[in-house]
Amino acid sequence: MSDEIRIYVADLAACNNGRLHSIWINACDDINNIREQIKAMLTASPEGFAEEYAIHDYEGFGSYALSEYAGIETAHEVQDQRLKQFEAQRQEQNRGCPQPHQRGPE
């Protein structure tokens, strides 16, 4: 398992014809960058006519069950919420801990 929050996007034209053509994408990337990565993957399709994609797997979304039809906008929104949760947890865990330049109680 990865620490990254990412999605596995599959080319449905290839999939429907028995071929695996897909890409792992960092869901924290800018939404336009994600769209470009999907567009590039579909353009390179072995089927030559790929237009549709689906999210076939994902990592780093915690207990959230991301549907393959959720879309990249939903995946991007969920990862943003997830990052905020991670940051809040990190801050809570570090509360009261001495900073590296501070000395703890003697």
Number of helices: 3
Q: Largest sheet, order of strands side by side?
A: 2-1-3
Distance between the termini: 40 Å
Structural class: alpha+beta
Task: Give the key terms.
106 residues; alpha+beta; Ubiquitin-like (UB roll); 3-stranded antiparallel β-sheet; 3 helices; 39% helix
Itemize the secondary structure elements and their pairings.
Elements: E1 6-11, H1 12-16, E2 22-26, H2 31-43, E3 53-59, H3 72-94
Antiparallel strand pairs: 1-2, 1-3
Short summary of the structure?
With 106 residues, the chain is of the alpha+beta class.
Question: How would you portray this structure in words?
Answer:
- This protein is α+β, with helices and mostly antiparallel strands and 106 residues long.
- Helix content is 39%, strand content 17%.
- It has helices at residues 12-16, 31-43, 72-94; strands at 6-11, 22-26, 53-59.
- The longest helix is centred in the last third of the chain and has 23 residues, at 72-94.
- The chain is elongated, with a radius of gyration of 19 Å.
- 17% of the residues are buried.
